[in-house]
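Record format v2
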Amino acid sequence: MISLSRPQIEALIDHERAAELIEEAYRAVSLGKVNLPPVGHIVFPEHDGDCHIKYGHVEGDPVFVIKVATGFENNAALGLPTGNGLSLVLSAKTGAVRAVLHDEMCMTDIRTAIGGAIATRLLIREESRRIVIVGTGVQARRQVEAHLKLMAGRDLEFLVWGRSAEKTTEAVVELSEAFPSVQAAADLEQACRQADVIVTTTAARRPIVQRDWVQPGTHITAVGADAPGKQELETDLVASADGLFVDLRPQCLDHGEVSTAARAELIGPDSLAELGEVLAGEKPGRAKDEDITIADLTGLAVQDIAMARIVLSAFEAHES
Amino acid sequence: MISLSRPQIEALIDHERAAELIEEAYRAVSLGKVNLPPVGHIVFPEHDGDCHIKYGHVEGDPVFVIKVATGFENNAALGLPTGNGLSLVLSAKTGAVRAVLHDEMCMTDIRTAIGGAIATRLLIREESRRIVIVGTGVQARRQVEAHLKLMAGRDLEFLVWGRSAEKTTEAVVELSEAFPSVQAAADLEQACRQADVIVTTTAARRPIVQRDWVQPGTHITAVGADAPGKQELETDLVASADGLFVDLRPQCLDHGEVSTAARAELIGPDSLAELGEVLAGEKPGRAKDEDITIADLTGLAVQDIAMARIVLSAFEAHES
């Protein structure tokens, strides 16, 4: 039985390899080859906390994965991380526990960022270079990392914008140590008007990015809205996009960026293509250079499965 | 973060202390003080396997528990145990993972046996001495152990019966090394006719214990039937019992020993008292010496929670 700590896990993750498996996972979901039972959930109202249990199995995989993730908002005041958790990898042939991955949420952060970068890579105009990152938290930083690692051949530059100038400076200082192509954006409207790509990563409950700011040819990857009530993009922007892409149709219609437009009956299920459908060649991606495309990602358990598989196989390859 | 192996866990379990917490757990369930979300379940038909995820939180507890248990029937042919699993203990205040208990099912086996011994202790006639154990597997052995440990003051003797004479001998030889008061029963009818207590532990799908065999004053603890279709006691025996006790009313009506009699409309929910109700003094236990009483136990996640708490607190007490 293998037990790995967060630093061990981070060292084993190769973004390119992870992206391959996550693309495979998106295809498997869209082709109906994944067994994903309902997510387990338990709440702790006294401490503003909850725990989600996501688990599933991809047809033919030798392992299945159970991911336990907790979120306790009061932790911040105690100087503790709000998110915690681990992933269990079990044999799908014998039920034996193969590995306990104490990733403390880093696998979730990284798979979310890789999902975003996969969507961007798939849907941008060929000559896209300037990426605006909305938000300054962990996910904003992970998106910069994932976009750079998955589009290494492109001469990308990043503009990071956050509501707080202080936090923006902090994020940019940290990021620019590793990635010299990162700068702060003083004004979001101006940044959006000049962007080839906009990546939104906030927990906003009111739209931040306005329709008028977004120019033809822009691609938007939105990963912040992962629960009912969250929204980063104006409803009009979503409703008028030339191409709308999601990770999972029913999940995004329920609580993704597209759910508001769907509830207003401005769009329907037929307006949406799943990333897996595009990756499998079953649906087209971007049609024209001047299109505005949006990828709305709510996060899938199958991404967690892929991450756990990558970590386990990298560990085993390293050991052998 | 604490990680314990099966031998470490077994060494930390004190039956008396565990029984206290499991009795407390039964009371908490019956008083509605436990948050038990629906059990998670995923199947692997190719390998005749499945995985259950049970989790919950007892009001006021500093921790909550997630138990993962797998059952892969094909393992037996491979020389591997069919059951596997672990329990996670997490803080109910911060969501942090406190412990991973790699018990490989032994906590489940022990808590099931302790539940049985609690029921027996609670419901027998004062002068009961002779206990017939039906079955020769792990649970039969665990029941002998738990009954002896939780009723140490009584001069108990055990008769073990199994369908296979060979397996019965094997079980008795093993048990009598630790417990001299254990003998084999050649004939189940005869054994039942002389029994004060009958404990059934098999996975039988047809009744084994007949109504005519059971004498006034006998108590029966039945722990084998834990899924629809399993039955160890004749329906008539259940329907005509003077006292019917269960661990959880809806669960036992669905897939316990009492479910067959309930479906035949011979008994209803009002015929049943929960152990927690009796332990809390809300319902009476055995009324008269000559009554036949039956305790039908299907196993509760709250027992798993109690076991994980015991192991963790014993470990912490040992370390400090």
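The domain at 123-300 of chain B is CATH 3.40.50.720 (Rossmann fold).
Chain B has a mean pLDDT of 95.
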